[in-house]
Amino acid sequence: MKIIKTHTGKIYVDQEHKLEFLTVGDYGKENNIKADFLGLHKEIHGVQHHDVDLTQKWVATISTQKGCPMHCQFCDCPKFGFYGNVARGELAYEVETILRNEDVRSTSRFNVHFARMGEPTWNGEVLAFTEHDLRGLVAKYIVADTVHPVVSTMLPKHNKGLEGFVLEWCRIKNKVYSGEAGLQFSINSTDNEQRDTQFNNMSLSLEEISALARHLPRPVGRKYTLNFAVTEETILDTDRLSKLFDKDRFIVKITPIHKTASAVRNGFNVTTEYTDYNVYRKFEAPLVAAGWDVIVFVPSEEEDSDRITCGNALIAVKD
Ligand code: SF4
Predict the structure, then answer these.
(1) What pLDDT sits at residue 21?
(2) Quick one: which of 51, 67, 62 has its CA closest to 110?
(3) Given ligand 1 and candidates 19, 71, 72, 200, which is best to mutate, with the most ligand atoms within 8 Å of its CB?
(4) pLDDT tens track for 171-189
(5) What is the DSSP-derived secondary structure letter of residue 54?
(6) In whole angstroms, what is the distance from residue 262 CA to residue 72 CA?
(7) Do 12 and 97 form a contact (C-beta atoms < 8 A)?
(8) 119 CA distance to ligand 1 centroid (A)?
(9) Over 60: is that where the pLDDT of 234 sits?
(10) CB 3.0–4.6 Å: which of 21, 137, 197, 299 could bond 94 by disulfide?
(11) What is the pLDDT of residues 257-305, one digit of tens each?
């Protein structure tokens, strides 16, 4: 297995098991997040790299599939191919490898993001693993005040089990984790045509996502999240979003589309966003004015160049 050191952690590239997963720390939300509703009002004009402290927040990002059968235009994972779902024991193996290889033995917060390779709603083992295995596994290695798992989905339209998965995840979030879990929908645009291009016609329409959202139970703890990975060309129509989704149940998260090989090749404008807040302000301000809770998350240049961000997969890049 190849272990690649990054500025904020490590990436494990496991060719033998066809897996890739990573461990990172965080710069602290006052340094890389603007969210008026959380009292974080400072505009983020670029994020300065500094050492991270895993005892404060520790993020494990793991794969749920070996490669990915979706073909999102901004993502490198499909280039690896697709070799099936990650088994429940292999999900544990990813988390366990991460925990075992650090000296840190306690943390305020251990996040597990099912967001390296794969679309998690295709893999029902994610549900069983989260409900029955994850917290016990973490407790074997560290004392974590909070264990916070997060599912991000691009809502694949051919997945007949999608709604069942999402409802089950909501039950786990609300009942098993008392609200301490995340559910994120990758929306990226309020224009179906623009979405279809980005998600290669593999995601539900916005109207279908809206209908699904109406079936979700009221979130306990944190609201659900509508993710927008943006470039200057992104269409984000606040009125349309407000008609489609309930701002009492959802927040909006804005991030840049990352500089993955595929995003560059497919012509996404990914070059300017890290130090220029103007790009985000034009999306954030109308949403906040309309009463939405909005988080703007900005990675550092180091994080992006380390390719720890969403849509990257080093295993897909041949040496
Ligand atoms: S963004 Fe997610 S669902 Fe889309 S191709 Fe990449 S790993 Fe698959």
Answers:
(1) 96
(2) 62
(3) 72
(4) 999 999 999 999 999 999 9
(5) T
(6) 9
(7) yes
(8) 6
(9) yes
(10) 21
(11) 877 888 888 888 776 556 778 778 899 999 999 999 999 988 877 777 7
For residue 273, the model assigns a pLDDT of 56
- Into how many domains does the chain fold? 1
Report which ligand 1 atom has the smallest distance to the Cα of 71.
5
Q: How crowded is the C-beta side of 237, counted as CA atoms within 13 Å?
A: 9
**Ligand 1 and 134: CB distance under 6 A:** no
Lowest mean pLDDT segment, chosen from 114-128, 142-156, 248-262: 248-262
Q: How far is the CA of 140 from the centre of ligand 1 (A)?
A: 31
Q: What is the pLDDT of residues 75-128, one digit of tens each?
A: 999 999 999 999 999 999 999 999 999 999 999 999 999 999 999 999 999 999
Closest C-alpha among 235, 236, 263, 273 to residue 252: 236
Other CB atoms closer than 10 Å to residue 16's CB: what's the count?
6
Residue whose pair of structure tokens reads 């988390």 in the numeric block? 95
Residues paired with residue 101 on neighbouring β-strands, in sequence order: none
Give dist(CA 163, CA 217) in Å, integer. Answer: 12
Q: Which among 246, 247, 228 is positioned nearest to 186, based on CA atoms?
A: 228
Beta strands 224-230; 182-186: pairing state: parallel
Average pLDDT over residues 41-69: 89
Phi, psi of 221 (to 5 degrees): 70, -130
pLDDT of residue 129: 98
- Answer yes or no: is the C-beta of 86 below 6 A from any ligand 1 atom: no
**Ligand 1 close to Cβ of residue 70 (< 6 A):** yes
Q: Is any atom of ligand 1 closer than 6 Å to the C-beta of 315?
A: no
Rounded mean pLDDT, 22-46: 85
- CATH number, domain containing residue 303: 3.20.20.70
**Tokens found for residue 193:** 């045509």
Q: In which domain, by residue range, is 183 found?
A: 2-316
C-alpha torsion sign, points 211, 216, 220, 222:
negative
